[in-house]
Amino acid sequence: MQPTLTSSRLLLRPYVLADAGDVQRLVGDVRIASTTTNIPHPYPDGAAEAWIESHAPGYRARQRVAFAVVLADISELIGTVSLIDISLEHSRAELAYWIAVDHWGNGYCTEGVGRLIRFAHEHLSISRFVARCLARNPASARVLEKAGLSREGFLPKHAVKNGQFEDLLLYGLNLPDRVQR
User: Fold this and answer.
1) d(CA 83, CA 64)
2) 76-96 mean pLDDT
3) Does residue 120 come out as left (phi exceeding 0), alpha (psi in the -120 to 50 range) or beta?
4) Which CA distances in Å does 165 have to 76, 134, 141, 158, 161?
5) Which residues, including other chains, have CB under 8 Å from residue 27's CB and lie 6 or more apart?
6) Is 58 exposed, middle or buried (0-12, 13-18, 19+ CB in 10 A)?
7) Which pLDDT band, with edges at 50, 70 and 90, does 178 fall under?
8) DSSP state, 43?
9) What's the confidence (pLDDT) of residue 180?
C-alpha cells in the first residue's frame, strides 16, 4: 500500500477518486498544460478519474507512483509529484511533477520532489533519477537543479506539443551510494 509522506509544509498522499474534480480544474489551466509534455489542453472529461484509477496498480507493480501534493496546514491539493518508468533492476526512475499556477514560485515543487527522491531511495532502493522538461520552461529546470539534479543533455525538437516541435532538457542525479555491482 502506498504510504503518505510529510515534509516541512507538505503532505504527499495517495490520490483518491474524490480528488478528480480538483485535478481536472487545476491541470485544465492552459498554463499547466503548456509547460508540460504530457498534459493535454483542453483536459478531457474523465481523464482525471482514469489517471487516478491507474495509480494503485502502477504502485503495486512498482512501475510508477504518484503523490498528491497537499498543503499540510489547510489540506489543499496543489499538485503532483511522481515517479514514472521505475526500473528496480536498474535502480532508476524518472521524475514528473506539476504545481497549481496559484502556488508557483513558493518552493512547493522543489520540496515535494526532494521528499519523493528520499522516499524512492529509502523504500525502493532507487539511486538514479532522471527528468525531462521543455527547454522553454526555466522554472521546471530550476526545480530539478534545486533538487540536486544536473543538466545532462539537450534534445532538439524532440517532442510535439500543440503541433509544434519542442526542445527538451535532460536532467539526472546519481546518489552517492550508486556503485557498480
Assistant:
1) 5
2) 97
3) alpha
4) 35, 10, 19, 7, 6
5) 33, 39, 43, 48, 98
6) middle
7) confident
8) P
9) 61
Which DSSP letter does residue 148 get? T
Separation of alpha carbons 60 and 162, rounded Å = 33
Encoded amino acid at 76, one letter: E
Beta carbons within 10 angstroms of residue 25's beta carbon: 13
Sign of the dihedral defined by the CA atoms of residues 17, 50, 63, 162, in that order:
negative
Say if residue 121's pLDDT is above 70.
Answer: yes
DSSP structure class, residue 142: H
What is the pTM assigned to this prediction?
Answer: 0.95
For residue 65, give the nearest of 47, 48, 83, 50 by alpha carbon.
83
Decide: 57 and 69 in contact? Cβ < 8 Å: no
Strand residues in the chain grouped as ranges (E): 5-6, 10-13, 65-71, 76-87, 92-99, 128-134, 150-161, 164-174
